[in-house]
Every structure is written in structure tokens, then in C-alpha cells.
Amino acid sequence: METASKLVIRPAEPDGDLAPLREAVRAFLARTMADRPPQLRAKSWSGADREFSCALGAQGWIGMTWPKAYGGQERSMLERYVVLEELLAAGAPVGAHWVAERQSGPLLMRYADKAVARDIVPRIVRGELTFCIGMSEPDSGSDLASIRTRADRVDGGWVVNGTKLWTSSAHRAEYMIALVRTDRNADDKHKGLSQFLIDMKTSQGLQVRPIRNLGGEESFNEVVFEDVFVPENMLIGTEGEGWAQVTAELTFERSGPERYLSSYALLTEMVDHADADDPRHAVEIGRLVAELSTLRQMSRGIAAMLNRGENPQLAAANVKDLGALFEQRIPEVAHQLFDHELRAGGSPFVATHCYLTQAVPSFSLRGGTREILRGIIARGLGVR
């Protein structure tokens, strides 16, 4: 990864055939993001720009591992990783297509009605669609299997009632993939769950209510379903198999470079403003860069596992947990070393520091809380 900053992180192993792709992505970003300041780059994958997503799609860099029948290029997971890494290191505004490319498209290709998948997935590849994920609910905490939103069978489909909470990008999304309860009499809370594809733009009875975060942004939402009709062909996979499907989906959500690069814009600013005569700067920033390099190798290893068709669930949980700790520590170290007065109207460095100080508390929530992830790790190690 390289940026305009002095911070340069070289691959621990040569990119080899991936080097031309990396250079092509950097050239594209140099053209399209030359005037984007650090405080906007700090939004990373939460920043959304549909025009940018469509331009990226035109380059063939969305859904690039997917089958050609769905608009993909059947390239390797490591090639995809190079593209994601460069986008995140540059702070590209990829939020308009991020969830759709990361997890919704693969889920639809594997489980959805074939006609539905053939209609929707190529539009994801072109950068035209935003997806949101309907998992969390009020009063459910981290216990995803305790959800109460329900779907009842009616003629020609289902009627959904309930509420989803903390739903990122619901206010701009064309579609939601929602986990709901289709069998309220199941003897196990992990049974009787199903996934549905919800049209966010045309469904009657659906309300999206914005929730402001610490930074004053309205990226989270509450989504209320009141007798929302969902056609039969919008059931994803098999009725009652939603738990198995959603846990597979979460593996994609937890393993990528976004799990350690969300605070990267601040780290590059710290390097640019470091005092060469202050040994604390060299020591503390050096530790952060060393940890970043380790997380990068772990995440690249997961990409290699996916490329071999292996299940990286345990490794992905590790990367997500360690990555959130790392990302949350960067603003703390910046404060110790530079002792800014944090205000949004300050210099680009101060504004970036201010934004991430407000944003990082949520980093240990998205994609699964720290407690849930450590439970997965403990089970995988056979100690729980």
C-alpha cells in the first residue's frame, strides 16, 4: 500500500503477477481522488459515491471474482484483495456498493431464485445498486438468533412485520437482505429463520428512520416493517435455513482489509507530522505500523484460504477482533503524541483525528461484537 504520505507498506512477499493490477488501481485513484482531503478519506468504506462506484464498475473492479454469466471476470480472490486494499488505503468512497459486492452478491448467486440473481447481480457489478443488511433488532443485543421480526405466508408470498436496527445505508439502499423468523414454533431459536430480499424503494409499509452517530452522521437507521408484502421468489435459499446462510455471509463481512484499514488515513497523517527528533514518535508509530503489517498478512492469508475454497470462519473472527482493537487504538496514540484540541474545523490532520475519535467506538460493533467473536474463537479452539 502506498499513499501520498511518507508511509509505505511493502508486501511481505512480492505481488508478482498482481503488480500491474496494483499499479492500474493506483493510477485510477490518482485520477479520480486527487482533490479528496484526508478528513473525507477517513470515512473509508463508509463513504458513499454512486458515481465513483459506477466508474469502478466500468473498470471491472466490482464482483471481479464472480462468474462471467453474472457479469464477473472469474479472477482470483488475491486479485480482488489487491483492489480492495488499494481502495481502502486511498480512502475511496466505496460505500455505495461495498456491502453488495462483499456479501450480498455471493449470497444471491448461491441461494437466490436464478431469475432474480441474473437480474440483480450484474447491476451490482456495474456499481448501480446499494444493499443493506437487516440483522440487528431492538432488544436483541448481540444475540442474533433472538430476532422477532416475522414473515407469515400469504397468497403469492409473505407478509413481514417487525423492526431492524442499526441498519447501515438503509436510507440509500435499493435492496435489503433481511433475516426474519418464519416459524415461531421451532424448538430451537436457530431454526425457523429465513432470509428475504426486500425491495427498499417500492415496498409498501416500509419506513426508514435515520439514527445520528457520534459524528452527527445519519449512516445508521431503524427500519420498520408494517405488513410489507414480499413475493415468493424473493425468499433466499430454503425456508428455515437462514441461520446457516447468514453465518456463512458473516465470514465475508469479517475477513477483509476494511477490518484493519478503517483508521489508515489518520495513521498516514501521523507519519507525515511525526517529529524525527522525538523518540516517542518513532517507537509508538513504529509499533502501529508493525501491527498493521501483521494484520495485513493475516487478512491476505484469509483471501488465499477463500481462493482455495477453504472455510476461514475462525481466522476471520480473529482478524475482525484484532483489527478493531488496532483501529480503535490509533486515535488514542495520536492524542498521546500530538495532544490536539479536537475540532472539526481544524487542519486536515486535526479534522481527521476528530472524525475518527468519534467513529471508532462503533468499529467493535459492526460485523459482530467483540464478545461474540471471542466466543467463536473459543469454540474453534475447543475451549468452550
Q: What features would you describe in this structure?
A:
By secondary structure, this protein is α+β, with helices and mostly antiparallel strands. The chain has 13 helices and eight strands. It has helices at residues 19-32, 38-41, 50-58, 77-90, 98-111, 114-125, 242-254, 258-261, 264-273, 279-307, 313-338, 348-359, 370-380; strands at residues 131-134, 150-154, 157-164, 175-181, 193-199, 206-211, 220-231, 235-236. The strands form two sheets. It has a four-stranded mixed beta sheet with strand order 1-4-5-8, covered by helices on one side. The chain has a four-stranded antiparallel beta sheet with strand order 2-3-7-6, with no helix packed on it. A hairpin with a 2-residue loop joins strand 2 (150-154) and strand 3 (157-164). Helix 5 (98-111) packs antiparallel against helix 7, helix 7 packs across helix 11 (313-338) and helix 9 packs antiparallel against helix 12. The protein starts with 18 loop residues before the first helix and ends with a helix.
